[in-house]
Amino acid sequence: MQEQLLDWYHREARDLPWRRTRDPYKIWVSEVILQQTQVVTGTAYYERFVERFPTVQALAEATLEDVLQAWEGCGYYARARNLHAAAKQITGQPFPETYEGWLALKGVGPYTAAAVSSIAFGYPKAVVDGNVRRVLSRWFAVKEPSDHWLQTTADEQLFHADPSSWNQAVMELGATICTPKAPKCPVCPVKDFCKAYQSGNPTAYPAPKVRAEVKEVQAVALIVGDQHNLYIEKRPEKGLLGGLSGPPLEQVQAGETVEDALKRLLDRLSVPDAKHLGTTEHTMTHRHFVVRVYQAEADLPLSASTAAMSKLDRKILRLLQEKQGALFG
DNA sequence: AAGGCGGGGAA
DNA sequence: TTCCCAGCCTT
Prior knowledge:
The protein is α+β, with helices and mostly antiparallel strands. The protein has 2 domains: 2-204, Orthogonal Bundle (Endonuclease III, domain 1); 215-324, Nucleoside Triphosphate Pyrophosphohydrolase (Alpha-Beta Complex), CATH 3.90.79.10. The chain has helices spanning 2-12, 24-33, 39-52, 56-61, 64-71, 78-90, 99-103, 110-121, 130-139, 147-157, 163-176, 195-199, 258-269, 311-328; strands at residues 215-224, 229-230, 233-234, 245-246, 249-251, 275-283, 287-296, 303-304. The strands form 3 sheets. It has a 4-stranded mixed beta sheet, sandwiched between helices. A two-stranded antiparallel ribbon has the order 2-8. A two-stranded antiparallel ribbon has the order 3-4. The longest helix is centred in the last third of the chain and has 18 residues, at 311-328. The model has no long low-confidence stretch (mean pLDDT 95). The structure holds a DNA duplex. InterPro entries: A/G_AdeGlyc_MutY, DNA_glycosylase, Endonuclease3_FeS-loop_motif, HhH-GPD_domain, HhH_base_excis_C, MIG/MutY, MutY_C, NUDIX_hydrolase-like_dom_sf. It catalyses: Hydrolyzes free adenine bases from 7,8-dihydro-8-oxoguanine:adenine mismatched double-stranded DNA, leaving an apurinic site. Keywords: 4Fe-4S, DNA damage, DNA repair, Glycosidase, Hydrolase, Iron, Iron-sulfur, Metal-binding.
């Protein structure tokens, strides 16, 4: 099984940018970006990030604002905050070379510690990510694998002579052949070893996870100024879109009406009244935002909108642009 | 153990 | 639409 998979991997592996380097820093950055972000999406962010911050020293010396700006649009912004904090933590000293050493860094959990230590240093620890979970679940026909079973089994199967290639090979198989919905079993290099394949119904493994419902959130936002020069606020570092900037926003709390939330927003900024511009919507994994957007003239400090903003904030500003475009259109 | 935390690709 | 992605942290 190991020989079949590794032969296939060395033949068919995708040419990905982080596979062209041995630099532990760049491999680390790639693994953090690839946490819950697909390869096709993450590639552009990786190129942008390592060009802006080519070394761990450069990252450690940067401001959080600059780091978040390089991360803008990539989501899960705690990853950027933790990566920045960890860079400050270790810059000037040698990189850890063990699983345990990497695990001690902020934002580095079991997956990332195994990935970086094995890929950059050949440390013998198996990665367990979504791909590996699916591959092992099918390989051994275990429908609801526990985290403990997954790590133990992955470590048992690890190819100790080349942990880097082995870990990447299992993930590559999961990403390109052993996919969730329509696995390409006929061309799978290791189908002869797969119990789910032998069962005749490979997609029954693993059983689908129960997911939390998407909750609807009503909110009001206020634009003062225009899209190039406007009043923006920085959100607290903990919580939703932490550390990012955007036009002032208030969520409609339980038992509150939209008008209540708008009054709270205007009172907070000492703005007497505002004009309704329109409504925009934005869905995240766990929240569906419905944002009523208002505009006002007010004596508030305006600045160029170069700060890092989320997609939600960009949509709010786009509403203003569309209104003004219609005016001249 | 469960919930919070973005955004987007693929079918 | 639905599923899930080279997960981690807090509670």
